[in-house]
Design goal:
This protein is α+β, with helices and mostly antiparallel strands. It contains three helices and twelve strands. It has a domain of about 150 residues: Immunoglobulin-like. Strands 2, 4, 6, 7, 9, 10 and 12 form a seven-stranded mixed β-sheet that branches. Strands 5-8-3-1-11 form a five-stranded mixed β-sheet, with no helix packed on it.
């Protein structure tokens, strides 16, 4: 019976020593996961251990750009934590377990928020110091040399600015304001009927037609051909004289012929 107990104790010690050797050999790695987010978003990253057996406590101090990222809180992803503390001011996470726990895989999660004015870029969440303890050996084991930072890629909604293609200054058009108080006054011609104030009206000259004078024979009208009463007597008198003179001329010729 004593031999069995001694063998069990030796096995426990051997396992504890082997785990310490894993840390001491530098095989254990502490990693922070990556994230792709937008400005103003909230996101989470996980912290995990690789190539590790069991631990009883874990203390991690983080480093990141606090002008862009803000640590909100965190939580343990291993079931039997008796101490769970995330110091958002000093960027430290501390977990203590009730006995040894398997440390391979995701150990805890950290929640961050992104500034709404953050520009598109990549930011790191790195680990400054990692300290673990084991139940079999209460000495602190520093794993700070074997860490891998997480990369947070932020894509903002800002539109890219195209470079100017011309060196000429842009032509600025006057604003098309609809405010009556800012529009230039419209000049309306006076509507007064006062002759003293009404502007003179100049008649438009009519075009002058050039006519060629032609000689035309105007026939007397019917009225002109009808003799008047006084004129008829004069004409009759003249006609009578002409008849008498003709008769006398004819008589004189006959006498001369004889």
């Amino acid at each position: 019976m004593k031999k069995i107990i001694a063998m069990i104790m030796a096995a426990v010690v051997a396992i504890s020593i082997s785990c310490v050797y894993v840390f001491a050999d530098g095989n254990a790695v502490v990693e922070v996961s990556d994230a792709n987010v937008k400005a103003g978003d909230s996101f989470s990253v996980k912290v995990s251990l690789k190539n590790c057996e069991e631990i009883t406590s874990l203390s991690v101090k983080f480093n990141y750009d606090n002008s862009v990222l803000k640590l909100v809180d965190g939580k343990c992803l291993v079931g039997n934590a008796i101490l769970h503390q995330v110091d958002t001011k000093n960027n430290v996470a501390l977990f203590k377990f009730d006995g040894n726990v398997n440390a391979n895989g995701d150990i805890f999660e950290l929640n961050f928020s992104v500034d709404s004015n953050a520009k598109s870029d990549s930011y790191k969440i790195s680990i400054d110091r990692v300290v673990v303890k084991q139940l079999a050996d209460e000495k602190e084991i520093d794993l700070s040399a074997n860490t891998k930072a997480g990369v947070v890629t932020i894509k903002s909604d800002e539109k890219p600015t195209n470079p100017p293609t011309s060196t000429e200054p842009p032509v600025t058009a006057p604003p098309a304001s609809t405010d009556p108080s800012t529009e230039p006054p419209v000049t309306v011609p006076p509507t007064s009927t006062d002759p003293s104030t009404k502007p003179p009206v100049t008649d438009k000259p009519e075009p002058t037609e050039t006519t060629t004078a032609t000689t035309t024979t105007t026939e007397p009208s019917t009225k002109d051909r009808i003799p008047q009463t006084g004129d008829s007597h004069f004409i009759a008198l003249v006609a009578g004289v002409c008849v008498i003179a003709g008769v006398a001329f004819v008589s004189t010729r006959k006498k001369n012929d004889y």
